[in-house]
Design a protein that fits this description.
By secondary structure, the protein is an alpha+beta fold. Helix content is 21%, strand content 42%. The chain is globular and about 40 Å long.
């Protein structure tokens, strides 16, 4: 799908999805979770519409209002807190493919995890596929 992301060695890969579109990772204590995946934009959603779909998906299981949301020409980001967990999601649209990164981690560990989170987010890149 044309994306890359760096992640700490301490995260354990939990297996690729059945259709080969992504991978999930967890810390050994299962408190830090990361998922990355690609999907074709079959419904021809705009960046804004895809962002709203991501937020609605989050709201299915629990009340969620993003505390941060940004939408640009080729990407969106939203984040917020559910119970005591930070949710962060970023998607990049390139060549009609959404490439998405999602992080979940405890608010109580925010300060300790910030260096790792910032590096993961900064490393998330999209590239053209052949």
């Amino acid at each position: 799908y044309g994306y890359t992301v760096d992640y700490p060695k301490s995260l354990v890969a939990k297996g690729e999805s059945g259709n080969g579109d992504g991978q999930r990772f967890e810390s050994r204590d299962k408190k830090f979770k990361m998922a990355v995946w690609g999907q074709y934009n079959a419904l021809e959603n705009s960046i804004s519409a895809e962002c709203e779909e991501g937020i609605k998906s989050e709201q299915k299981d629990h009340p969620f209002t993003p505390s941060y949301k940004a939408i640009k020409n080729t990407w969106y980001v939203f984040s917020g807190i559910v119970d005591s967990t930070i949710i962060y999601q970023k998607a990049i649209l390139q060549d009609d493919i959404f490439k998405t990164l999602r992080l979940e981690y405890p608010v109580a560990q925010k300060e300790a995890l910030d260096p790792f989170v910032k590096r993961i987010i900064a490393s998330f890149q999209s590239f053209k596929t052949e």
